[in-house]
Here is the input.
Amino acid sequence: MDSSSTFWDNVESPDDNNSESKNEEESTYLAREPQEISKKIITLSTLLMFSIPLLLLSAPFALVGMGVLGQDECWGDLEYLEDGKLHCVEGEKSPNPTYSFSETHVIVTHSQGYSDVLRWEIIGDGGVIGYAYYDAYYDEEEPWFSHGYCEWEGGENVGSEQWYCGVNEESVSRFGFENWYYYCEYQEMNWYCTDSFGQSASFADTSDETRADANALNKWVYNCLPVVTKSPFENTSMIEITEIEAKVVLPQWCFETPIFSDNESVEHILPFNGEAVYLYPNGIGYGSIDLLHYSNDSLRYQMISLHDYNEDGTLTEESEESMQLLGSFFPVVIVIIYLSGGYLLYALSTGRTYIEHLGTENTLIVSTSWRNKPRKVKATISLTSSSLLRHYTTSSTHTDSDGHSYNSTSHHHEITHFDRQSDELPSGFNTEELLKLTGLKLA
Here is the structure.
């Protein structure tokens, strides 16, 4: 050993080891072309749920502005109501509906062959009605569709080796089959159909199949509307009606996935005990209010004027004076509602979430944008050789006012790392597209 050297001259420093280790790790990553995926923050179905109340709220004002409402003559039928006065009534009256009952839902079949699947609850002098519908059109990976009635080679289609479906059996008898699929199975009071498995004669009997998993069954959602059980024509003012409706708090089940279960022994109670309810109050002292009534002999959905009429179909003098006083107010209301509502829908429709892989740099950038403005970065995730993509589900249990418990499931993704905390990814992306974007393996 050279007298000028020491033992430490031949020992590698910790910094040198870390540098080589880091360089070795970086060299294992092969640069790719930059990639990006994006999803709408607000789905089309959610936008529709925003737009429908907006249209219903503004419709009476628009009709007044067009002269359809607010004119001297009644636009529908004149009927004496509880206040002993004539009111103008227009809308659907479907005779002899049929009802079927489950543990929590009532299925109402109209005389025209259409059906409502609904749940209802009385809350004080108000309540809520929730229409269940199947949100089928936003799963590009494995689309499922739900129908009330399906037959293998239905009707005259013998030898076609596929299923034929309609709204319900009565609708099929009146209008025929409206849809057809290669595969259908029956679960929890509904038929679930898809073309994802191809065409096969063996699909004629799917009585023991449960290919429609929780992802397919959980596409059922509610459209809940507050209602008032008091009549505005029976010692109740429109101010009281409006206050009652405003105080209705939607129950927890409105935000959960509807659960269908057969129960032949369940008590057969018509929605709101067969009594009429009122919704969408459209004015105080002027305008109209909607009536909804499920009874044994008819189904009524009608719009009723709040002002009074003479027997010849003209407005009473008192109602005519109130209309003249408020007539100039409606054009302003229409403009305000449509401008503010239209801008809100536009803003919601432009919201998008982006996940971008930089390519040369093994990094993900999560960002969002609204109203087509520049994106705002929400997270920067550096990937390493230890990073993995993990898909997981979370479940929650909710109990309604009747003591019934329901489970709901949601799906999530995160990126795990060996040496640091996991990074959560935005929801709405499927596993395959995330694997392709990140180049990671599934944990």
